[in-house]
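1st attempt posting a full record on here, be nice pls
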Amino acid sequence: MKIDQKPTFLLLALVLLVSTPEVRSSSLQDEGTVSRPANSAPTTCIELAAWGDAADFSSRGVGMLKQRCDLEDIRAKFADLDSNRDGYLRPEELPMEHSLSQHFAGVDFNGDERLSLAEVAEHDAETNPVE
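the predicted structure (as tokens):
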């Protein structure tokens, strides 16, 4: 009597296929969710923004990325406010309701009646520290 081993072989192949990590993780994911490996971390400003509070800011790499992204954001906002493109913000360039306008004297560390990018970045670091 000859026993057909095809069903056993197919069952074994199916078990091996389903037990591989790539298949197991992809088949169990909902189509609308983003999977993040447990040991991964954001590497771009866009990824960091998408992670939000889930990012581990105690990690040196993530903390440095956050500082770089914050500085890029400050540079862009500074450039938008610097209407005469001289590299400084004067009181007349700032909208009255802007927080820099309201705290101008405190942010103007050297008292030259204009704000440099460094002064604005320093003020931001003091008021929004990396946690």
